Fold this sequence. Notes:
Elements: H1 2-41, E1 47-52, E2 55-57, E3 71-74, E4 104-111, E5 135-142, E6 154-173, E7 176-182, E8 189-194, E9 196-205, E10 218-220, H2 222-227, H3 237-241, E11 244-254, E12 268-269, E13 275-276, E14 285-293
Antiparallel strand pairs: 1-2, 3-4, 4-6, 5-6, 6-7, 7-8, 9-10, 9-11, 11-14, 12-13
Amino acid sequence: MVASLSAYTGASGATRIAEAQGLMNEDAQAALTMLTQQLSMAGNNPDQINRVDSSVRNPIYSPHGSTTFIILGCDGNFTNTTETATTSLNELNCAAGATTSPDSIAVNYEADAFNTIPNSSGLPTDCLGNKLTEITSSVSAIDTTTLSLPTVTTVTSSVNYYVADNRYYIDTENSRPSLYCKGNGNASSQALVDNIEDMQFTYGTMNATAGPTATVAGYLTAAQVIASSDLAALPDDAARWTKVITVRICVLVRSERPVVTDAASASYTKCDGEVDTTKTDLRLRRAFSTTVVLKNRRI
């Protein structure tokens, strides 16, 4: 009986761990897939039909005002991520000083029914499925009604489009850490993936004078992007963030409930490569990472 009970207990424990690992893998895949898709779209701003060279793209606007960032990161949380008064990425603020909090990131891109999940009316949405506000702007276009080469006449054309402004961060509700998003289609934020305990970003940058074919010069934290001597010659922070060409993402996922038998079995490797042996809640933890190229970014 003792032998049978011991075998049953061991098999039951192994099953719980295997199930927990499977759920952790699913949560990590969901979080990384979502962030990868969003970062891949950063800066999407298609050329207008019949454009002229001096006006090749739509202006990028948030619903309330202009922004000069396609991505913006923080080492830690934005201090005003969810405030409805925040009008654009230009006005997001990072907490001062060093922090051990999970990182945050904001992504800006022109949205349509193909690079977002459209609503029931076929209109583009933010990260929470809320309809985006239509924006009307004026661009210079070729007047095709009077086209007579080599002379080209330009006219002011009115264009309508949508912009997604999504901010991702870690927050906790009912003691459960989760990946949250605040989109610009609604004032509310919402948890997207549960049991994401930490999120860290590093940014692959090129030097200030590098051309379109430049390779990554190094990976920096958000604070280092602003303070880097290689980017110091650029006029402002927005210009420095344009030198980011890749983003490394690491998310730390925990199991839904305790599944290991002792604290030693709960040790894990963090996003920075260090081993953490301090957790005593008997949950499994594992870091997952990927690297994303900002393929819609324009130099």
